[in-house]
Amino acid sequence: MIRTKGINHIALVCRDMAETTQFYTQVLQMPLFKTVQLPDGGQHFFFDAGGGNAVAFFWWEDAPPAAPGIASVKKFPFDAKTAVGSMNHLAFDMEEAELEAALERLEEAGVPHTHMVFNHDDSPSGYAREMHEGVFVRSVYFTDPNGIMLEFAATTRSFGPEDVRHAPATLAEDA
């Protein structure tokens, strides 16, 4: 049996390593703990996201350009679909009490972000304006300099069997 201990790191691609390093170390205050110069001229840098987790970035001078709406979100929450095999967003775990301070930090740094904390629940819209006992996670969404959608997420309750109540969807067969 394969037994993992969690996610070691996620590796993304950035357009400018200096700009990305400044954002992750200064704005998000994630220490840079490892840098690699790649034999093809590229770079691979690792940032400490806390709890033994890391976010890593590759940079190549000749990397293909960003492809919003294909490989990344165009604009959350209204145009958040991305292509099969793409990454939609990266969520950093955070204590609920830290969310308001995180919003203030993003505002101070001029980072584009949702100007409210989203209270995710099981309502038809998927979120509520006010906190209530059905809210299972509270989130703040923002983008990094590469257009990657990020999230600060605070889980507000434990999950149980009643939280798994939808059958997995599949593509319809051709008629």
Task: Describe, in plain words, how this protein is organized in 3D.
The chain has 175 residues and is α+β, with helices and mostly antiparallel strands. The chain has two domains: 1-62, 2,3-Dihydroxybiphenyl 1,2-Dioxygenase, domain 1, CATH 3.10.180; 76-161, Signal recognition particle alu RNA binding heterodimer, srp9/1, CATH 3.30.720.110. 12% of the residues lie in helices and 28% in strands. The chain is built from two helices and nine strands; from the N terminus they run βαββββαββββ. The strands form two sheets. A five-stranded mixed β-sheet has the order 5-9-8-6-7, with helices on one face. A four-stranded mixed β-sheet has the order 1-4-3-2, covered by helices on one side. A hairpin with a 6-residue loop joins β6 and β7. Pfam families: Glyoxalase (PF00903). InterPro entries: Glyas_Bleomycin-R_OHBP_Dase, Glyas_Fos-R_dOase_dom, GlyoxalaseI/FosfomycinResist, VOC_core. It comes from Erythrobacter fulvus. This is VOC family protein. Residues 6-155 form the VOC domain.
